[in-house]
Amino acid sequence: MSDATTAHPTHLRVHQFAGLQPGPKLLVTAAVHGNEVAGVGAIQRVMAMLDEGALTLRKGTLTMIPIVNPLAHRLQRREGERNLNRNLRVNPIPQDFEDRIANRLCPWIAASDVMLDLHSFNNPGPAFAMLGPRDNDGDLEPFRHQAAESALALAVGTSRIVEGWLSTYALGLTRRAERAGDGSRRMALQQDPHYGVGTTEYMRSTGGYCITLECGQHADPQGPEVAFKAILRTLVLLGMVAPEAVEPADPKRPVELLQLYEVVDRDSVDDRFERQWASFDPIAEGQRIGTRADGTPVLAPFGGRIVFPNNNAEPGHEWFYLAKPSDRVLA
């Protein structure tokens, strides 16, 4: 690659539209992972509509960051120097490029009321939304916007919604912390209790609410349209644009609600899956998911679905997640 390609970007592009009437402060982000680009063009499309007058901002403040990690995006890969969507916080003494981005990004998040974070995933599959915890006063992720966040998750229009990210990730971190580290900063970050905190978790910690919208597989040609409609539907939900700006999601569509309950790390490069799994493939109780390097079977403790299976996971990293039907009521 040329020096121009590999040189570290020196700024973050942030676009803001300030309505003349008071209202919600919405932040829309994309390319937190550099190769997840469905939201990039969608944000640019919405900005063009606002500039041309095809879309009118009635009230509130709309902030959009089409490329949150410009280094990873320039390199066309998930990370620049590390995963920006882990251990996200202000860093008084930044150690890498993502720390420097976090120092700019976190204040924008904290200044917002609502966030829509646009992502995509490796394996083929339909789009889905991820929402946060139920209202609680616990230590892990205290929260008080369950109803508003549930309405947002329903409004974007996916047929599948997933909860339970941070609590499940915390279980994995507890087990990971018991392993001996190699002294590297990467390992230290992975064993940090804060490691599961990304954009949406940080948003909730500052008093707002949000969802992650996984717009489909990275190369899915429908991904940008999913992202575009989600932005408009969020604006309509918040009363920031007119309802006729976009067709609403079908309120009668069936929605599968799942709860993550387990994350399994890959221990060795010789750990292998039983077959080629795709996200949300059904799993029966006791079914063999994979086999460890020493021949130990990896079995599903409950029936449900496999989520984010990663054939290329490095040892010590997430290999796959497990989800089961949730008893949460969204409406």
Topology:
Layout (H helix, E strand, L loop, with lengths): L2 H4 L8 E4 L6 E6 L7 H15 L8 E5 L4 H6 L21 H14 L3 E8 L6 E3 L15 H10 L4 E4 L1 H13 L7 H6 L8 H7 L3 E9 L5 H15 L18 E10 L6 E2 L8 E2 L4 E4 L5 E3 L4 E4 L10 E8 L6
Parallel strand pairs: 2-3, 2-4, 4-7, 5-6, 6-8
Antiparallel strand pairs: 1-3, 5-7, 8-14, 9-11, 10-13, 11-12, 13-14
List keywords for this structure.
globular; about 325 residues; Aminopeptidase; 3-stranded antiparallel beta sheet; OB fold (Dihydrolipoamide Acetyltransferase, E2P); alpha/beta
CATH homologous superfamily (4th level) name of the largest domain: Zn peptidases
Order of helices and strands: HEEHEHHEEHEHHHEHEEEEEEE
- N→C terminal distance: 51 Å
Low-confidence stretches: none
* Biggest β-sheet description: 11 strands, mixed
Which CATH first-tier class of the largest domain would you pick? Alpha Beta
Q: How confident is the prediction overall: mean pLDDT?
A: 92
For the record, the count of structural domains works out to 2
Q: Give the class from helix and strand content and strand pairing.
A: alpha/beta
CATH topology annotation of the largest domain: Aminopeptidase
* Total strand segments: 14
Strand order of the largest sheet: 1-3-2-4-7-5-6-8-14-13-10
Radius of gyration: 20 Å
- Going by CATH, the architecture of the largest domain would be 3-Layer(aba) Sandwich
Question: Please, how many helices?
Answer: 9
Strand content: 15-25%
Shape: globular
Percentage of helical residues? 25-40%
